[in-house]
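<backbone_tokenisation>
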Amino acid sequence: MNGSLEKYTPKLMVLPTFLILLIISLVPLIYVLGISFTASTIAKPFNDFVWFENYKKAFTDEIFGHSLVNTLLFAFIVTTIQTFLGFVLAFTMQRERTLSGVLRTLALLPLFTPPVAIAMIWRLIYDPNQGLLNYYLLNWGLSSTPIAFLGERTLAFPAIMLADIWQWTPFCFLLCLAALQSLPRDPYEAAMVDGASAWYVFRRLTLPMVAPQIIVIFLFRFLIALKVFDLIYMLTFGGPGNATQVASFYIYRVSFKQFQTGYGGALSILVLILISILATLLTKGREFLLSKVER
């Protein structure tokens, strides 16, 4: 009896935390799922059941489709650049113990800074009248007139990407640095004894051993980037036009600006399904890439 009780004690201790997390996760999901089948507004929740009408509307909503494309483009581009820059910085600094310590401290500053404050900083940098970027472009003769980076359709999205890259590259740098510094030293010592070149060591030792961690960092950051909202809200509010409209911001506009909470719930469920499918595919892709690297 005592043996069986001891066997289930760890599970019983974890059970309260598991139930709390389950309630926190399931209750909002069930509420959003329920409201997505209604013509609800903020003033009249669960107004009329329309079943799948909201979902049918979503599949013909061009703005929603455009926002999904923007979201995927944004997440893929910024994650690729951030992971690459983070790895390059980490690889350069992995042997500089003193300098890497200073860089680790500096890298924490963008992560500790509230996203709203970061957005305001970049809004000031991009300001066409008194912004730092326009100041240098005009003084160096690279532009004859001030550029409204956040007001031009072709420049607004890259401008937001640049702000996100500045904010999240240190995050990738810290994770890549930890991955590189955790690699075993024995293979490197053997390669030095054999007289292997630096490029050979990087290609045959460092890259295969660190690839699993780099792929995980990429996937983790990609899933976070899919939820971008604060930079869009503070810098462009989805404009000019719908040039910087992303899925999360479009759902916000539909739900809390147009007051169509039922339709917003349907859009939220569709985005959740899309992210779940992407996460599954990326996980399978990770396993495939790792099998190629191991070969």
